[in-house]
Amino acid sequence: MPPNRSSVWYKDAIIYEVHVRALYDSEDDGMGDFRRLTGKLDYLQDLGVNTIWLLPFFPSLWRDDGYSTYGTLRDFQTL
């Protein structure tokens, strides 16, 4: 049986991998964050991007590259 079209969505996807820290900075502290990335979603869509692949992030207090500095859980949920 051929695969369901929705199960192979990635074959036509335009995927943009994002390292949040390196992308957009809303607080002018030199590090990207979720709020600024949220503000750029329309721009990314205009480029044809329809899928965002976020590199790992989690609370870490500067262990493992300080992922907790990207914003709050609410900022991520808004994104």
Question: Can you put this structure into words, describing what you see?
Answer:
The protein has 79 residues and is an alpha+beta fold. It is 23% helix and 10% strand. The protein contains 3 helices and 2 strands; from the N terminus they run βααβα. The chain has helices at 34-39, 41-46, 73-78, and strands at residues 15-18, 51-54. A two-stranded parallel sheet has the order 1-2. The protein starts with 14 loop residues before the first strand and ends with a helix.
Give a brief rundown of this model.
The chain has 79 residues and is α+β, with helices and mostly antiparallel strands. Helices cover 23% and strands 10% of the residues. Strands 1-2 form a two-stranded parallel ribbon.
Key terms for this structure?
79 residues; alpha+beta; two-stranded parallel ribbon; globular
Q: In terms of per-residue confidence, which ranges show pLDDT below 50 for 5 or more consecutive residues? A: none
Shape, principal axes of CA atoms? globular
Number of strands: 2
Strand content is 5-15%
N-to-C CA distance: 37 Å
Integer-rounded radius of gyration: 15 Å
**SSE order in H/E notation?**
EHHEH
Structural class based on helices, strands and sheet pairing: alpha+beta
Task: Write down the overall mean pLDDT.
Answer: 78
What is the number of helical segments per DSSP (H or I, 4+ residues)? Answer: 3
Largest sheet: 2 strands, parallel
What is the helix content?
A: 10-25%
Sheet with the most strands: spatial strand order: 1-2
SSE order and pairing:
Layout: E1 15-18, H1 34-39, H2 41-46, E2 51-54, H3 73-78
Parallel strand pairs: 1-2
